Amino acid sequence: MKNYILVIIPVFVFVLKAQSQKVVLEDNVWFNRSEDDNYGANKKHYVNTYMSFGTSFDPNTFKSPVIDLNEYKNLGLYYDFGICYKYKLGNVLSLTSDLSINRNRRSLHFGIVFPEVEPVYNREIWSAGCFALGPRINFDPNRGNAIGTYLDLRIVGLALANSRRKYKEYTPSNTPPVVVSRGLHPDNRLLFGAEAVLGTGNIALKGRYVFNTQTFDQSAIWQYSRYTLSLQIGFN
Amino acid sequence: MHKVVFTLLFLLSFARLTAQKYYVYFTDKDGQQLNPYSYFDEHTIVRRLRCGVPLVQKTDLPVNENYVQQIQEAVDSIAVVSRWFNMAVVYASTEKMAEVATWSFVKKVEEAGPVFKQIAEEVIPVKKIKILHEYQTERMEGSLFTKNGITGRGVTVAVFDVGFIDADIHSGLQHLDIKATYDFVGKDENPYQGGTHGTSVLSVIGGKYGDTLLGLAPNAQYLLARTERNNSEPAGEEENWLAAAEWADKNGADVINSSLGYTFQRYFYDDMDGKTSLVAKAANMAFSKGIVVVVSAGNEGNGKWRYIGTPADADSVLSIGAIAPETDLRTSFSSYGPNAIGVLKPNISAPGWVFACSRRQSYTETAGTSFSSPLVAGFVACVMQQFPQLSHKEVFEKMQLCGHLYPYFDYAHGYGVPLASKFISPQNVPKQAEFSMELLSDTALKFNLLPPVVATIKTDSAEYLPQYIYFHIQSTQGILVYYKVVSIRNEEELPVYLELNNKGYALQAGDILRVYYNGVTRQMKYQP
Lengths: 236, 528
Description:
By secondary structure, chain A is mostly beta strands. Chain A is 12% helix and 55% strand.
């Protein structure tokens, strides 16, 4: 009989409650407190987004094995947008994984000059997705709930996409040059490398090295820049 | 060129690594003396005598000049020297501080907390409320004070804020008696810069809109201190707060209003225990000197943080939550309590949507617990004028006793909105309704009004606020485990069955179930 009443009462209460009262504020303090109250940059699980701007470069020149032609690549413009997840192991050591997309644009010129044929406008544009994983070392263990000053060391995987070369091609006389866009076909669309991020608060300096085919063979062409240096601004 | 600028900015951001901030505590104040009559403002002497605080405490003695001098020569710079904590806030290299820590007169050296961007008090645009400027004081029955000529006269209120732009020229503030000013950011006596937040805050303590009072203490004296930078914090604002509190103590403050708070950008919720942050310790120290400290609870109620910030976590501080004019309940942004060790916060509440002075000669409608706090600070000034014999501890207690919900409380409203009638004529405060409560099971409570009652329920029309039933479960440790507010919309539906959704917590013998309705609180002890 008692069990029967215990079942009936909540139903009864629910029906009446729906008609006669409106809950305008409710706080289950005990239940809420049992959840993770810690919120902020130094909590155990933390996700932040960021963007960075900088430059990409590759000191090697392409040397054609067939003709006496060198291709020089200037400093490129690099920018990316990403999201970083941090798993805190302790006040000094954390693990970070990072997912980002980046774009990388460089102009080129050639080592042998034929003024009448050298393009006046010659660019490579690379877009890539990037995944990075590695430890974070914090230098200020007593940082409260702030990000602090840190060094991230990560291995990097890059997936190249939408790689193109654009240039102005001269046409027969008395007609304006046209911009030609051609897809690039690097030997490897999946690249690997390493990066280091030295940061304090929302600002960081990010350096990255990517192994490409030219690392091992200077005659390889159409390669993603091996070096990237950028200033990163975090949104925390 | 832009790359060079980026690089320089980045390197500058690391530059502070070579000069970290430290708190250097000294071992003693041997040989230090203080003549309180020449150092303190006359008002400070009166306040201390009234509150039973010695005229000279060890914490009031000046820091040993020789110690400061030696530290000065060793470090890059000294930001603040605190008598209260017998310490100096310094910038120095790690190596130098390791050496300083070994000196015989240095008690300890602490690395200062991180200095990152502060959480700015949120200002939320609100819809027009026709009589907001009257409501904000009248919700606390402020006219009872003014009709009796109580306007904060003879009380000194210190206001710490981000800046008081145009507070010196605004027509709604011209009548205020500004006793002293100081800018602890710029280290000068001009706080009329940095932002208008302080201008608005000041106006809801003692400003006017025409003949209408925006705050309850137009005749108080004021100390204005700028302790914050707007939106960012290159150097410690908490240290500025401490320095400002010592300055306010010296200059005779009875009340400090601080519509400022620090949360997740520096601290974990576990740090909100009233003992961890420098600003909480400074607020407690100010109270121990006889100053009533009124602080906004914070605007994180609908954010991830959710809870009060610091110094609202300090147990000696009157932490003020915000209520909305339309509902008379907690506004969505007002931060929840308690503090991390279960002390009731916020202590009381006040309107969080207000009409206030702003830049140039303008007025604005604005929202935030930033404005609940000064409304209460003005109320406190009136209480101090009315009852000049009350000590700071008595004022603190009475402010809670005069909350409209008292003795009921919860972590959203504290003891509710302070009512002047409970001070002016407590014997005449009517009990408006009687009710019965009956626990039907562990999950249901029956509430019924006793005759003649039903007429007291005002219907859910635009002219009346809804009638609320507040109830909570208090554990045997004194901490609330569950609370709830429901509105009665239909008088024919009585009795009301209240559902207890206290999931995760089973009622235990000795737990208290407490219900508040329309001026009356009833409670029962749970017996299984």
